Amino acid sequence: MRIPGQVIFGILIILIGLMFLLGNFFDVDVGALCFPTALILIGVWLLIRPRLVGPDTALRMRIFGPIRRSGAWRVGDEEIWLLIGDVYLDMTQAEIPPGETHVRVFAFISNVRLLVPQDVGVSASSMAFITDTRVFGQKRGGFVIPSHVTSEGYENAGRKVQVETISFIADVRARQA
């Protein structure tokens, strides 16, 4: 596994859930069974999630952000999991591979900011209860409405960055340097 702390946290969540479940085993109360069952499912999901992403996809998990990258760095497929946080990716000096690169952000509340070179196409989609998405001056947003904005010339760009955000509240912005 790539993240041993995640394994330990997952096992801990499973054990806590099992304790609640066994404590309530003889007293059948649906509310009392739902919470431990949810903990067990979250723990199992945390254990198997790294196996579900591709081997070339980086997985970052934090409770609180921010996650910031700037200067010289290599852009690659990535999943970022946050409870609450900001994700700031300055790609102006980064090595962006040809083709399409996927960045997925899963959070309760998130602000995602991208700064990309002129020749990079950007596609940003957001699913959130409240969302605001702006890519190179184009704006989409609202309540319980998925938003998708694509930069002009995205289909023909040699290097593309696709950003997907799933949050309760999401604010996604992309601009060119």
Describe the protein.
With 177 residues, the chain is α/β, with parallel strands linked by helices. It is built from two helices and ten strands; from the N terminus they run H-H-E-E-E-E-E-E-E-E-E-E. Strands 1, 2, 3, 4, 5, 6, 7, 8, 9 and 10 form a ten-stranded mixed sheet that branches. Helix 1 (4-23) packs antiparallel against helix 2 (30-52). The two termini are 37 Å apart. 27% of the residues are buried.
Please tell me what the overall shape is: elongated
Average residue pLDDT: 82
Kindly provide the radius of gyration, computed on alpha-carbon positions and rounded to a whole number of angstroms. Answer: 19 Å
Number of strands: 10
Helix/strand order = HHEEEEEEEEEE
Describe the largest sheet: 10 strands, mixed
The secondary structure category is: alpha/beta
End-to-end CA span: 37 Å
Number of domains: 2
Q: Uncertain spans, ≥5 residues at pLDDT below 50?
A: 1-5
What percent of residues are in strands?
A: 35-45%
Number of H/I helices: 2
Helix fraction by DSSP (H/I, runs of at least 4)? 10-25%
The gist of it:
The chain is of the alpha/beta class.
Keywords, separated by commas or semicolons:
177 residues; 2 domains; 2 helices; disordered N terminus
Draw up the topology in text.
Blueprint: H1 4-23, H2 30-52, E1 58-61, E2 67-69, E3 78-90, E4 99-116, E5 120-127, E6 130-135, E7 138-143, E8 147-150, E9 159-166, E10 169-176
Parallel strand pairs: 1-3, 2-3, 3-4, 4-9, 4-10, 5-9, 6-10
Antiparallel strand pairs: 5-8, 6-7
Helix pairs in contact: 1-2
